[in-house]
Amino acid sequence: MMMNKLDIAIEAYSQLADESVISRQASGTLSEENFERLKNNLESCQLLTNYRTDSFKVEFTLPSDKDAFFAQNLDDLLKATSRKINPPEEFYIADQHYHHKELNEKTPKNIKQYLETAKLVKELLKLSDYAAPEIPKAVFLHGEKLELNLDYNLSDLTHPLDTEPFITQFINAEIHKDQKITIVKSVLIEMLKDSEIDRFSISSLIKRFPEFIERINSNYQLYVSEFSFEKIKTQIEHEKFEFTTKLNSTFSGIQNQLLAIPVALVLTGGQMQKTDALTLKNLSIWLGSVVFALLMSLLIRNQKSTLNAIKLEVDSQWSNIKDKHRLVSDRLSKHYLDLHDRFNTQIIFLTLISLVVSASIVGSTTLLLYNSSKLNLFFDVFISGTLGGLIYILLCLTFTKLKSR
Known about the structure:
Number of strands: 11
Radius of gyration: 42 Å
Strand content: 5-15%
């Protein structure tokens, strides 16, 4: 079997004693039995630069061709920008004793990462509106300008990277090809905006590659469904505004009536007369405050019922959004959380108003007792209060039944 230049260099290097490498010139001592054969092999492929027969020393050039490269380590391989984009078809990493010819299960993890990263860089250069492979840098134009620095080093090859699905589905696929390219550009620009730095690099993209793929898939799913995220977002913001208006109206609808509570107490205290007996006037004023409280309670119950109906509508819409647009629902959830917070706030307000109404009944009853000062009248007050309470409860039950019909 005929050996190529890289095979010969690998065999000679592995046989060297006291080897050293300076400026891609390897030198060292070979064993006596292998000296002649290896020297001739190196000479035949024009790698041999010097030798000494008496000491069996040789010096030869390490291959650095486009299709065959001898590297002392992976960092040595990454020194040239061209190899960061187009890995040699065949290469050897001396410190790992790894000879790469094709990707397989025995390929070291860092070599796989290198090959995947180079593949990603190459495809991004193809997608760019302007490419500078000698830097390397890719420029994307999509409403805005994005300059993506594609340079990377050994420290960037620590994150797992699988580019095959991305390349197969979004680069090489013919269906919706132009739209997919547009989606990739828009996602890259979005991620630059989310970045804490003012530049976006391949290093950052490698670290955030799962997020990159997720965003692309989300945008593409929306496109396939004949939607866009911005369109859905605009629609939801409009509906949020309508729901907010409805929620606010439930409280504003009883604001004018709330002003009547302190007025009722003032009138109750001002109109009642201090007597030794339970007078019809005082009792009628007290009953009026009870009727007012009853009506306010019914109004509050009605507003709470309206709030619950709005909440059911909001929850139904959110469930529908999650079913139809599962991939982007997390990005829309904030709008619905805001609505739930507003709903809870309105419920708390209405509960506080209920307490105020209850306090108004207590206040009017206290005024009635205060103005009916004789102790023997407390029995009459008790009877009247009980009667009023029963009337209040019966009216509540009656209105509730009528409302349920």
